[in-house]
Design goal:
The complex is a heterodimer of chains A (about 300) and B (about 270). Chain A is of the alpha/beta class. Chain A folds into two domains: about 5-215, Rossmann fold, CATH 3.40.50.300; about 220-280, Alpha-Beta Plaits (2-Layer Sandwich). In chain A, helix 3 (about 90-100) packs across helix 4 (about 105-115) and helix 4 crosses helix 5. In chain A, the strands form three sheets. Chain A has a six-stranded mixed sheet with strand order 5-6-7-3-8-9, sandwiched between helices. In chain A, strands 11-12-10-13 form a four-stranded antiparallel sheet, covered by helices on one side. Chain A is about 35% helix and about 25% strand. In chain A, about 40% of the residues are buried. Chain A has helices at about 40-50, 70-75, 90-100, 105-115, 130-140, 160-175, 185-195, 210-215, 230-235, 260-270, 285-295, and strands spanning about 5-10, 15-25, 30-35, 55-60, 75-80, 150, 180-185, 195-200, 205-210, 220-225, 240-245, 250-255, 275-280. By secondary structure, chain B is mainly alpha-helical. Helices cover about 70% and strands about 0% of the residues of chain B. The chains are: A alpha/beta (about 300), B mainly alpha (about 270). At the A-B interface, helix 2, strand 5 and helix 3 of A face helix 1 and helix 6 of B.
Chain lengths: ~300, ~270
């Protein structure tokens, strides 16, 4: 059973179509990235899925059921900025959430410790830094031990340490087997935490697939040696090379399926050459993303 | 139901402006509703008299008059309670906690029901306060005492409950429609205390007005609340007043409660939050 299934989900505002005919399936255990530039419809999609926006047409199902407040209790979600009562403390705010989600308030201690806010639990929300607010939002989303976690731009506006912490938290939660949906305009972020992703642009889905597959044909092997001309001549004879380029003193091999660094090393060794740089690099989602966008334009 | 009340309680419990406005309301109502005699003694000392009688002997706190008199005076302060609704719900919209409540798993129906319960509790508390004030001032000033007199005309308390509840539901609808507290507080004040009473008075009493238009005034929303309790004081200058509650007026006010609640719920359902 799919966690989430959407069927031609569409949202139109007066002049613009914020989301156009979205069909999407999210399976259990996926860390699903929603990638797209600002204003591409990521938050709109999540708003529709969480019943805070009314769809113009189309439908969606959570856990194979018609959407209801009860299905939302099994989802932990934050949309855009963290929303809490500013005059209330972390504990007081989470008490409200616990009553809404009908989960025991004893969970509050667990999530506050998990996101590192236990020490500050009795300070009003308005005194928190952005990173703390963001962490409280994640803690709140985890309060009912939900099957699905939805995070919208979770690292927006955070400092590098905060970003690192949040990403680590997402990976920890994913390791617990939860399904996670992350909306982000940061390619790097999606690449680092997601197993699957889709690309949205101007409300239209351009691509959906797994991160590994998308990056699979993006593998490169970099080789460099002191005698780069000789190296070049040898590499030209190497079997299983799809493409060979030379940039800034480094040869970049786009390998076929069977070629790896070990084979390259052995090959050079047999020809009495030593490389001072030999490394395999996974693809870069940025290149893939730009390729998807340009394919679409073509 | 209990859960919805609990959620609303958790929300207001630590909200200082809420308690300040409640306190202000209770203070105003208590002072004005129980200070009538002192006020009359004061104006008498400044030389006022009505047809030769000193105002301080007017039996404003005697059973059964006390109920109609204090609920009539208290009615004007319901605007404070309206402000409480406006501020708390405009905050829910501006802090985006309304949206977060829905995301967290509160249905819009439950959210609305919770707010209706708040209206109910506020109207109930206000009614209870007036009951206490009535009993206290009557025990001090009333020339007749005893349980057999106390319950006479107490139905004005129920009318007061309906009027306050109706006004709060009206405020609830408006703030869901326009979640801008500043604008709405000024607007609500102007409309409730100035605009509609003026329009209502013009329609009813204008000498050259259309005859068919005169009865229309009673169907206006604020007028329908005010009509639950007609001005009682002319009786002290020997004029006839309506010292009872008309079923028709109760029905009009109740219909407004339903209309405003339905409109409020419709707006909440239809809007993108």
């Amino acid at each position: 059973m799919a966690i989430l299934e959407t069927n031609s989900l569409t949202k139109k505002y007066r002049r613009i179509t914020a989301l156009d005919q979205l069909n999407l399936i999210v399976e259990p255990g996926m860390v699903f990235g929603m990638l797209g530039p600002n204003g591409s419809g990521k938050t709109t999609t999540l708003g529709l899925l969480l019943d805070v926006l009314k769809p113009t047409s189309g439908s969606y199902r959570w856990f194979g059921e018609e959407p209801s407040a009860n299905s939302r209790k099994k989802i932990g979600a934050i949309l855009e900025s963290p929303c809490f009562y500013p005059f209330m403390t972390a504990t007081q705010n989470l008490k409200v959430v616990a009553s809404i989600k009908e989960c025991p308030p004893t969970q509050i201690e667990r999530v506050l410790k998990m996101v590192g806010l236990w020490e500050r639990r009795d300070d009003p929300f308005k005194t928190y830094s952005l990173g703390m607010k963001q962490r409280l939002a994640i803690g709140s989303a985890l309060l009912s031990d939900p099957a699905v976690l939805i995070l919208d731009e979770p690292t927006n506006g955070l400092d590098p340490m905060g970003i690192f912490d949040i990403r680590q938290l997402i990976r920890d939660i994913a390791a617990m087997g939860k399904t996670i949906m992350v909306a982000s305009h940061l390619l790097d972020e999606v690449q680092k935490v997601c197993s699957h992703f889709m690309v949205l642009q101007k409300g239209t889905k351009l691509f959906q697939g797994s991160v590994d597959e998308a990056l699979g044909d993006q593998r490169t092997i970099e080789v460099a040696s002191d005698e780069h001309e000789l190296l070049g001549r040898h590499l030209a004879e190497l079997a299983g090379v799809d493409k060979l380029t030379f940039e800034e003193g480094v040869y970049k091999i786009t390998p076929g399926a069977d070629l790896n660094t070990q084979a390259v090393n052995r090959f050079l060794f047999d020809r009495n050459m030593v490389a001072h740089h030999l490394v395999e690099k996974g693809g870069d989602l940025e290149q893939q993303f730009l390729k998807i966008l340009s394919d679409q334009g073509a | 139901m209990v859960r919805l009340l609990e959620i609303e309680w958790l929300k207001v419990r630590h909200h200082r402006p809420f308690w300040i406005l409640i306190g202000l309301y209770a203070l105003c109502v208590t002072v004005i509703c129980s200070g009538g005699k002192i006020f009359l003694q004061y104006i008498e000392s400044r030389g006022a008299n009505f047809n030769g009688i000193g105002p301080s002997i007017l039996p404003i706190y005697d059973y059964p008059d006390v109920w109609q008199n204090i609920t009539f005076v208290a009615a004007i302060f319901k605007i404070f309670l309206g402000f409480i609704m406006v501020i708390s719900i405009a905050n829910e919209s501006n802090y985006r906690t309304l949206r977060q409540n829905i995301i967290d798993g509160l249905s819009k129906r439950e959210f609305f029901l919770g707010k209706i319960l708040v209206c109910c509790v506020l109207a109930g508390a206000s009614t209870l306060l007036l009951l206490v004030i009535g009993v206290v001032v009557a025990s001090v000033y009333s020339s007749v005492q005893g349980f057999e007199y106390m319950f006479d005309s107490m139905s004005f308390l129920l009318a007061h409950f309906l009027a306050v509840f109706s006004f709060l539901v009206f405020s609830l609808f408006l703030v869901l429609l326009i979640p801008k507290p500043g604008l709405l507080i000024v607007g609500l004040f102007m409309y409730t205390l100035i605009f509609e009473p003026m329009v209502s008075a013009i329609i009813t009493y204008a000498p050259h007005g259309k005859e068919w238009l005169r009865p229309v005034a009673q169907y206006l929303p604020i007028t329908s609340m005010n009509n639950l309790n007609h001005i009682p004081f002319p009786r002290y200058v020997m004029q006839e007043i309506q010292d009872y509650i008309l079923l028709k007026e109760v029905i009009i006010a109740s219909v407004w409660v339903l209309v405003n609640a339905a409109l409020g719920y419709y707006v909440l359902r239809r809007k993108d939050w």
